[in-house]
Every structure is written in structure tokens, then in C-alpha cells.
Design a protein that fits this description.
Blueprint: H1 3-7, H2 11-20, H3 23-27, H4 32-40, H5 47-56, H6 68-77, H7 86-97, H8 101-114
Helix pairs in contact: 4-5, 6-8
Length: about 120
């Protein structure tokens, strides 16, 4: 469960914090783990939102954000335990797809979203 849903905070407040603290300039120079750690310190930012920021704003294409649907797509496709943690699934995806993890995640998500239409 994301910190956002536990805290009841709105993402707009966290984005405002991010901009007002000039954190966006600082995290662009950090490696993935350090940048994510900084983002997770903000109210309302959990693993998925932090990973979305890192992938879509800072080109960390070696990881992919995971929501419930993406997790289902990966666990179904690769016969993984549905109870796998966010961190362990991310590690699996990164090992399997390497620098293309964000792209693979997006394509797999879209495939599952559209396959029955």
C-alpha cells in the first residue's frame, strides 16, 4: 500500500514541496536509490509515485513503476507469487529487462489492459 493511501495526504502538496524545496534540481544528480530515498521523505509519495517521477521525469528507464495492474501483469506472465513484495518484483523486472525495464513494464501493462477489448 502506498504511503499516500495511508496518510490521506494529497499528491499536490508533495509536488508543491518538491518544487519549493528545489529538490527536483538536486535529485537529478543522484543515483536511483538515493533519489528515491529523497522522494520517499515527502508526504504522500510512496514507492509507485517515486518510481513514476524517476522514470517519467528523470529517465531512470532501468526500473518500472508498479501499481496493482502492473503487478498482476508481471506475476501472471512470469508465474510469480502474487504476494511478492514491491521491492522483490522490481528487482526481478530490473534483472530480467535491465535498462529497458520501464519500457517493458509499459508495454506489458498496455497489453493486459487492452487484450480483452
Amino acid at each position: 500500500m502506498d504511503h499516500l493511501s495511508r496518510s490521506g495526504e494529497s499528491p499536490e502538496k508533495s509536488v508543491g514541496e518538491l518544487i519549493s524545496n528545489n529538490l527536483s534540481k538536486n535529485i537529478s544528480k543522484l543515483d536511483y536509490e538515493s533519489a528515491k530515498s529523497e522522494l520517499l521523505k515527502l508526504n504522500g509519495i510512496g514507492d509507485k509515485v517515486a518510481d513514476c517521477i524517476l522514470v517519467f521525469s528523470l529517465a531512470h528507464d532501468h526500473i518500472t513503476p508498479l501499481d496493482l495492474w502492473a503487478k498482476r501483469a508481471f506475476t501472471h506472465t512470469y508465474n510469480l507469487d502474487e504476494k511478492i513484495s514491491y521491492k522483490e518484483l522490481l528487482k526481478f523486472i530490473t534483472k530480467y529487462y535491465g535498462q529497458y525495464s520501464a519500457w517493458a513494464g509499459q508495454f506489458l501493462f498496455e497489453y493486459f489492459r487492452l487484450k480483452d477489448k
